[in-house]
Amino acid sequence: LLLVVLLVCSPSSLLSIALANTIYYVGTGLFVGSGSVLAAGGPASVLIAYILIGCMLYCTVHALGEMAVL
User: Fold this and answer.
1) 3-class DSSP assignment, residue 54
2) How far is Cα 18 from Cα 11, in angstroms, rounded to an integer?
3) 38 touches 45 (CB < 8 A)
4) Is 10 left (phi over 0), alpha (psi -120 to 50) or beta?
5) 6 — pLDDT class (breaks 50, 70, 90)
6) CA–CA separation, 41 and 45 (whole Å)
7) Neighbouring C-beta atoms of residue 46, cutoff 10 Å
8) Which 8-state DSSP code applies to residue 9?
9) Residues of the chain above pLDDT 90, percent
10) pLDDT category, 68, cuts 50, 70, 90?
């Protein structure tokens, strides 16, 4: 299956697949690893982290949208 994907996909498609998988695994690791820290910090830290991560995700999605238009 991997050989078929390598033969059919263009280099830009392979790059986007690799980036998506990297973002997925890094995001999962941050989510699982930050749970105990957020629980120890209390409700204010959870709210601050939610707002901060929401702003970062908004900027990321906005940048991806601009790249898709180009």
Assistant:
1) helix
2) 11
3) yes
4) beta
5) low
6) 6
7) 13
8) S
9) 1
10) confident
Residue 6, C-beta contacts closer than 8 angstroms, at least 6 positions apart: 14
Residue matched to tokens 């999605």: 61
Instruction: Answer yes or no: are the C-beta atoms of 17 and 9 closer than 8 Å.
Output: yes
> Could you tell me what percentage of the chain is helix, strand and coil, using 3-state DSSP and rounding each to the nearest 5?
90, 0, 10
CA 14 to CA 65: how far, in whole Å?
A: 19
Give the closest residue to 57 by CA, choosing from 18, 17, 30, 36: 30
Give pLDDT tens digits for 39-59.
788 878 878 888 898 899 889
- State which amino acid sits at residue 53: I
Rounding to the nearest 10 degrees, give the CA dihedral for residues 14, 20, 21, 23. 140
